[in-house]
Amino acid sequence: MGILKSKSNKKFSYSPRYYDDKGKGNPFEIHSKFDDFRKATVDNKGLANKFKTAWADLEEKSDRKTNTRLYIIIAILLLIFLFIIDFDLSIFYSN
Question: In total, how many domains does the chain have?
Answer without folding.
Answer: 1
